[in-house]
C-alpha cells in the first residue's frame, strides 16, 4: 500500500499552539509506505533525511529578541532530494527581518496569508495521509523555491529573525520550538540553545517550565541561559520567562484557570538580587554527619572523604564568620571537635587532616550521631544545617526508625534544616524521608554507580549563601470574606518554606478560589531582623487559552508527590489513593502505584476495580523501607515534590524507577532514547514513562500520550481521551480522518483544536463539551 509523501517535517510538534516559529518544514516528492501493524497501529515510513545538529543563538534585550537557528541536515537517501522549505509564521507575535539561508545563500520565498497557508497545509496532509502538520492551520507561511540536495550531502539551514516578545504580569515570554519529528530516522547528535539576556533594570526571575537549563547570572542586568542536549530523539519546545525588578527580592505570579467554576492554579516565583555585598553576608552553621560503618568501605568512603573536603574548602572561601563541625559514626560517635569551630584557615587545615584519618568499620549508630550533632546547635538566630550521609540501616543503639526520627526532631531545639544523602539501595529510605520532613529539609538519593561528591557539592553550593531565612508567603485580597468562607488560596507546595539562597529561586505552586487583584507578602529574616516584601498580583478569573497550562501540570506533579509522601509516612488512606488515581488519569502522570492504568485491558471508567488495585499496590510497595524498590520509590517521590520543570530528557536519572510495577512514568516527557511512536505528533508535556528496558515498561510507555492539556490512553485499538465517559462514547459523532468535516473541525476556533487531531490511529476525544470519534481513512492502493 503506497501513498505519495508531499512533506517531511522537522519540528512538527509544538508545546504551545502559538509558538510555531523558528522551525523549518522540508518538502519533497518521495514515495513512502504506509501500513498497519498487527496491533492496528498505523505506521508511516521514515523520511530520507537526518537532522544532525540544531543550534539556537538568541540575544534578548528587554523585550526584543534577535534569534538565529542553525540546522544541519543530511540527505541519507540514494537520490537527489528536491526540497522546499516552509516556515510557519507566528499568530500573535511581531516578527520582522526574516531571513532564510541555505549553505550561505539567501533563499527567495513567498509569504502566504493564513487562508492561503491553510490550503497548503491541508494539501500536504491530504496527500501524505498523515495529520502531523494540522497544528499549523491558522498560521501564515513563508515558502521557498525548490532546491536540490545530492545524496549523502549535508546542508546548513539558518533562520534569522527579530521578534517583539510579549510581556504579561511583569514577565517576558520567550520560546523556541525544538521538538523532533517522529519520521526522522535518527536522533539529533547535538541540540544546543544559548540565550543571552540584557535588561535596563535588574533581572530577578529567570524560569523555564520546560527544561532544566543552566543559568549564569553574570551581573544584575545580564544573564546567560544554556541548554545542551545529546542524542535527542524527542524533547519539548524550549520556553523561558524572565522579569526585572528593583530591590532585594523580586516576585512574579503566573495563573491559569481553564474553568471558572473550579479552583485555578498559580505559580509563584521569588528570586533574590544577584549582587553580593560580603559585608552583608549572613553567617551560617553547618554540621556534616558521616557514616563510617563497615559497609562504607572502599570507593564509597573515598568519595565521602572527597565530599567532606569539598565542603571544607568551600567553607574556607566563605569566610571566618561561618561555624562548622564534623561528626563521624560507626558503633561509636566521634566529633572533629567537641564544639562548633570557626572556619578559619588553621581550623580548616586541621579538619582536612581529620577527614584523611577516617576509615570504614563497625556498625551503624544513627540515633547517637544525630543526637550529638543537634546538641551542638544552640543559636536560633543563625541559619543552621545538618548534612547527614549514610548507606545503611541502624544496627546499634536505637533501631526503630520512627523513634530515631522522633528523637532527632526533639533534639533539634532551634529548627535547623536537615539534608540527607542516602547512598545505595541498602539505606532505609523511609527513615531519611521521616528525618527530612521532621527537620524542614530534603533527602537526596545516590545510586550505587553515582558520584557522592557531585551530589553533596551540588546541594552545598545551593545553600552556601542564605539571603533570607525562615521565609513565609501570604496572599491577601482586598475583598472582605466571611469567617466561614474557605481560604482563597489552598494546597500550596512545597508545604514548608525555609530559606531563600543567593542564586536560587523559590518555585511555589497552589490553587486559588478567589480571582482578581491580590497582594503577595514575602517575609523572612536577615541576621535575626524580620524583613517584609509586598507585590501586587492578578489571578485570572478564566484563562483565554492553554498557554499557561503548564502551571496546572506542575501543580499536579507536586500534589502527587505530596500524596505519596503522606501515604508513605502517615500510613494508608483510601481517600488519598482515590485522589492519586484520579490525578494520574486526568494528567497522565503515572506512579509506581497507578502505572497499571496504562495496560490495555484496564478500563479507566471502572473506578472501583482501579481503586482496589491501586490500594493493593500502595500497601504492598510502600511496605518496602529499603532495597532497590524502596530506594526507587522515594527517589521518584522526592523528584516529584521538588520538580520545577515538566519535561525531563535525562532518562538515566529515572532508570531505577522502572523496576517498580513494570515502569514508572516520567512526568516530564517521552523517554529520550526512543523514537516517537505513531500518533505522537504533539508534545507529551506531562505524560509518558521514564527509564527501564523491560517489555512491560515499553508496552505501557506506548499506551500513554499527552497532547496539550489532555491525557490519552491506548485502549482497544484506539486512543481514548481520559475525560470521556462511557456514556459520552455512545453519543460520539464519528468523523473520518482527512474528510472535509475533519478539516473543518481542525480549522475551527482559529485552529486551536487541530493539535488534538494528530493521531494516526482512531481517537475518541472531548472538544469543548462535544465528543468525537476520529476514524482513520482507508489506506488506498497505488
Strand content: 25-35%
Provide the gyration radius in Å.
Answer: 28 Å
Terminal-residue CA separation: 6 Å
Q: Name the shape in a single word.
A: globular
What is the mean pLDDT?
84
E-strand count: 42
- As laid out across the biggest beta sheet, the strand order is 10-9-14-7-6-17-20-19
CATH architecture of the largest domain: Sandwich
Assign the structural class, choosing from mainly alpha, mainly beta, alpha/beta, alpha+beta, or little secondary structure.
alpha+beta
CATH class of the largest domain: Mainly Beta
**Oligomeric composition of the shown chains:** single chain
User: pLDDT below 50 for ≥5 consecutive residues: which ranges?
Assistant: 1-22, 31-45, 647-694
Task: Identify the notable features of this structure and list them briefly.
14 helices; Immunoglobulin-like; 23% helix; Rossmann fold; 34% strand; disordered N terminus; seven-stranded mixed β-sheet; single chain; 782 residues; globular; 42 strands; eight-stranded mixed β-sheet; 4 domains; alpha+beta
Structure description:
With 782 residues, this protein is an alpha+beta fold. It folds into 4 domains: 2-244, Immunoglobulin-like (Sandwich), CATH 2.60.40; 284-445, Rossmann fold (3-Layer(aba) Sandwich); 551-707, no CATH class; 708-782, no CATH class. It contains 14 helices and 42 strands. An 8-stranded mixed sheet has the order 10-9-14-7-6-17-20-19, with no helix packed on it. Strands 24, 25, 26, 27, 28, 29 and 30 form a 7-stranded mixed sheet that branches. Strands 2, 3, 8, 11, 12 and 13 form a 6-stranded antiparallel sheet that branches. Helix 2 links the parallel strand 24 (285-291) and strand 25 (323-329). The model is unreliable at 1-22, 31-45 and 647-694 (pLDDT under 50).
